[in-house]
Amino acid sequence: MLKFMFGAAQPQGLGVTAGKLKRVPPSPNCVSSQADPSDVTHYVEGIKYTQASAKDALTHMKKAIGDDAELVKDAEDESYLHYEYTTPLMGFVDDLEIYADDSTKTLHVRSASRTGYSDMGKNRARVEDLRTKLSK
């Protein structure tokens, strides 16, 4: 099967800095639980967890993601994950970041397309799908 590759290089500034994931860009192809809640284009609610620790919550998240994406970074402090999702035919790459805030028992998420302007709701749908899987 013919496969195109449109995946751009990994963006600068991914990760957690002072408890925050990277800010959302102006384009509508990114959602984040740390965006301003009044920003209906970019804001998505964080995912609450009941596991005993951030490590346990992230282990649960890893199981929910399964083989759907490639794990790029599993932070040593056990509070951050970075995954890459690649579309089958065109090879577009989206980055999913998860930061477990144990003080609020919240998995903060940021899902963003590396290229293009619109993602036709794919990043929001990805986060909501994970929320559904984790609630089961």
TrEMBL record:
Pfam families assigned to the protein according to its UniProt record, in alphabetical order: DUF1499
Compositionally biased region (Basic and acidic residues): 121-136
Domain of life: Eukaryota
Spans annotated as Disordered: 110-136
Cross-referenced InterPro entries: DUF1499
Stated name of the protein: DUF1499 domain-containing protein
